Amino acid sequence: MKRYPNTSILNIITQKEDKVEKILFINVKPVADFYPLNKIIWYPQKGNKGESIYVWEKLSIKQWVACGKDEDILELFENIITTNKITIASKEVDLKIPHFKKKLHEDLPSKSRDESVYDSLVIEDAGFIPQEFYQKENLNMLSGYIIGNDEIKNLFPFGFFEENFLYNNLLKNTFGIKEYRTPYLTFRGVRKTAIKNLGSTEMIGFYQQNFEETITYNSKIENIENEIIGEGIIDKKNGRFKMSLSTPTDKGSIEILENGNIEKVVKYTLLSDITIDMNIASKTFKDTYGRTSLITDNTSDITNIISNFTWQREVYANTTEADKKLSDKFKEIFNYLGPNILIADPYYINDFKQDPVTNNFELRHCQIAFINSLIHSAILGNIKKITILGVNSRANNQATSDTTIEATKTEQRFNKYESLLKEIINNNNLKTFFPVESIVFKNSNKDFHNRYWFSIIEKDGIKLLEKCIIITNSIGNMNEVDIMVVNDEAQLNQIIRKYSELFKNSEIKLSI
Questions:
Q1: CA–CA distance from 166 to each of 21, 152, 162 (Å)?
Q2: Which of 42, 127, 140, 149 has the least CB density, counted as fewest CB within 10 Å?
Q3: Pick from 88, 84, 103, 90: nearest CA to 23
Q4: DSSP state for residue 58 in the 8-state scheme
Q5: What are the DSSP calls for 108-173, one per residue?
């Protein structure tokens, strides 16, 4: 039977006070690795031999890191918060823990593919934690998202905590997170047997779980009328399942059952792949959301004015309508900045997940919205070239490496980008609108953090940045985003000076 991930990491951040270590933050996080040992390992200088070095010497702050099997790390977490001590290699470390309330997770069926399930420790005396440890900039320096401060060292492993993770939790007085592993579920409709405009007639999927021999695992699918239209058995040897459906579907919910008990319920809307249905004869095209637009001889809708806008996915009753709105806002930005655009985002357009069953790329909703609007604007003639400037070191911290491929994270990222974009262009007959070198990815040789979208103009053979829009989140990580035009001349000049230099000295990594 296949061995699935079973490893968790324990992270403890402490402040030395006399002979005691005050716990400022404690966290358990499952990771996608298989752990073969029956003992917990503490990392060198992070608890090995019962000792740890300072990561912020001025405040006497240390980090302790251990890894082990999920159940062993969870048990260690409980022992620490109940006994106020750790024993490592026969050495006892005394701990000081603030008064707290434990907020337990609800034991309910999960309702998303990658839902986090955790207990949290809420501090009752905020004065226990030093004020400097509440500062957002300091915490992001520790987490590795702000660099250049020799006084504060990065936490280990580098990039382990998501940006603002520590800050956002401490802001809610949460100083402890005990996260549990949840089974991974992915599924999709079978393209070959789908009926146009009606949906899929077959569903295949993959359920990643450490299966128990005494338990039967089943899948079930219901349409939006809550009628059962398909059922299947999950193969415990490989986690795969397949369901033939009594009626076509594009909306509904999938249930995973263990011995008949519901463990996971995921609502779905099956978006077809990013496809543009071009009809040159009638001069129309249909976007990936199924909306048809007319292409006239004078189709360009370039605008010189754009308003600031806040998009929040959760405020829309229907997520598909929310994604359409985001795509339309992207298109509006392209029409304002085009036809030559620079996107400066340290994470490029972020990573793509790859389906372990089909090897197809799984795009996030905002990545679909971005590519849909890019194609739409290119068809209208409002984009001729787009350059995406990122920072490989930052993007690599957020990327998941495929260990079965002999390639670096950087190489894997640009191989994915190339495969995805060329497939979309070729499958949808878009070469006319995306000639060679119309999409370029460049790596900055200097670090940057903010996200700016610029227009590029050319004067006397020199490329210059002109208009600028602030985008507060990265493509691939947008559940909310603020879009703000930079109108203040002094601010605009300051931003352009820095990013013109970064753009000028950057290196092309991929050209499509």
A1: 19, 15, 8
A2: 127
A3: 84
A4: G
A5: --B-STT--EEEEEEES-GGGS-GGGG-HHHHHHHHTSS---TTBPPPSSTT-SPTTHHHHHHHTT
pLDDT, mean of each 10-residue run, the chain (512 residues): 75 94 96 85 93 94 95 96 92 94 78 73 89 92 81 86 90 94 81 74 85 92 91 91 90 90 80 52 73 65 79 83 93 93 95 63 87 90 94 82 66 90 84 91 93 93 92 90 92 94 94 92
Q: List CB contacts of 502: < 8 A, sequence separation 6 or more.
A: 344, 389, 444, 445, 446, 448
- Here the tokens at position 502 are 């970064």
d(CA 345, CA 352): 16
CA 57 to chain centre: 32
Phi-psi domain of 359 (left: phi exceeds 0; alpha: psi -120 through 50; beta: other): left
Q: Which long-range contacts (CB under 8 A, 24 or more apart) does 19-22 make?
A: 19/94, 20/94, 20/95, 20/96, 21/62, 21/93, 21/94, 21/95, 21/96, 22/95, 22/96, 22/97, 22/128
> C-alpha angle 134/56/140, rounded to 5°?
45
Residue 352 phi, psi dihedral angles, 5° rounding: -110, 140
**∠ Cα 178 181 184 (to 5°):** 145
Which residue is it, tokens 């077809």?
Answer: 272
Q: Which residue has the tokens 């039977």?
A: 1
Q: Extract the tokens encoding 445.
A: 């040789």
Decide: 170 and 129 in contact? Cβ < 8 Å: yes
Measured in degrees and rounded to the nearest 5, phi and psi for residue 225 equal -90, 10
DSSP β-ladder status, 174-180 and 20-31? parallel
How far apart CA 8 and CA 180 sit, in angstroms, is: 9
In 190-331, where do the E strands start and end? 200-208, 217-223, 228-233, 240-249, 251-258, 261-269, 277-279, 284-286, 292-294, 309-312
Instruction: Give the span between the Cα atoms of 194 and 202, in whole angstroms.
Output: 7
DSSP SS3 for 191: coil
